[in-house]
Amino acid sequence: MDPKTAEDNLGIIRSMGCRSIHVGGGEPLLRLDNLVEVLEAAKRSGVSVEYVETNSSWFKNIDEATKILSKLRKKGLRTLLVSISPFHNEHIPFSRVTGVIDACKKTDINVFPWVNGFIKDLSEFNANRTHSLETFKKRFGQDYLYSILKRYWIHLGGRALDTFRPVLLNRSAREIIDENPGGCGRELSDTSHFHFDLFGNYIPGLCSGFAISAEDLIKPISKKEYPLITMLVHSGIRGMYQLACKEFGFSPARSGYINKCDLCTEIRNFLVHNTSEDLPELQPREFYRNRQLQIYA
Ligand code: SF4
User: Fold this and answer.
1) With a 6 A CB cut-off, is 184 part of the ligand 1 pocket?
2) Which of 58, 164, 183, 254 is the most exposed, having the fewest neighbouring CB atoms within 10 Å of its CB?
3) pLDDT tens digits along 212-245
């Protein structure tokens, strides 16, 4: 996020009562100078930064990591959320994670381990290599993926839909609709933990792939500009499904879905790729581009 966008959005959320934020990604430390600018923008805006998240992919050696974190510490960073999970270990060797934790100790930065409970599992493997989820299943049992849902809060949306669909009960689109007769107002208006994407759009609730312009936050959301979001607030997945079938010729591509968000994501993906509508509330487009690659790969 460029510093101007960051500062504009920080000003808006501060005016609405938010006094502290976290910075996530992607991976915020991939562009250190950019992260420094965002920390400076937060300071100027009078908004404190509770923590910055990292997956530790950037770690090369302890000296360099210490230098990087010292720079951030001088900019006021007090806590680093360090991701620790089998999903990260698919891509990032655990030695990089422990290296970042060591560098935090040297630079007086608190570590917020997300989550400590996986250290035991990761410690069973070669720390200098990555490991597939298949490897975890072979070591800890075939129900390993399912058991993770009891150890760790995971929002079942976005990429997690594809990861967990094979181990959860799948129900037909009709069953999902019958089970969810109400609107999604509770989810879409939840501001207890909210996000902006790097383009400066507000992501309502945890519903990845939806976007509301920051300047529209200070007034009631317009039905004309946000027809899908307002329809979902009032009519939920049932309304979304009926609209997609009647107006755009959608029919479910899968025989089963794990929840209403699974079906909602498929419908949105269909709309983005199969209609000529502009649909500015369905952003960032990369979210749908990536999903298309996953589905059709
Ligand atoms: S169904 Fe769609 S709008 Fe409703 S909570 Fe799930 S992702 Fe959000």
Assistant:
1) yes
2) 254
3) 999 999 999 999 999 999 999 999 999 999 999 9
Q: Are residues 102 and 230 in the same domain?
A: no
Q: What is the pLDDT of residues 110-139, one digit of tens each?
A: 999 999 999 999 999 999 999 999 999 999
Neighbour order of strands in the sheet with 20-23: 20-23, 48-54, 79-83, 110-114
Question: Taking a C-beta distance cutoff of 8 angstroms, is the pair 233, 185 a contact?
Answer: yes
The finding on whether 187 has its CB within 6 A of some atom of ligand 1 is: yes
Residue 190 Cα to ligand 1 midpoint, Å, equals: 12
Q: Are strands 110-114 and 79-83 parallel, antiparallel or unpaired?
A: parallel
Gap from CA of 160 to ligand 1 centroid (Å): 14
CB atoms under 10 Å from CB of 141, counted, come to 11
- Domain range for 31 is 3-154
Read off the pTM: 0.93
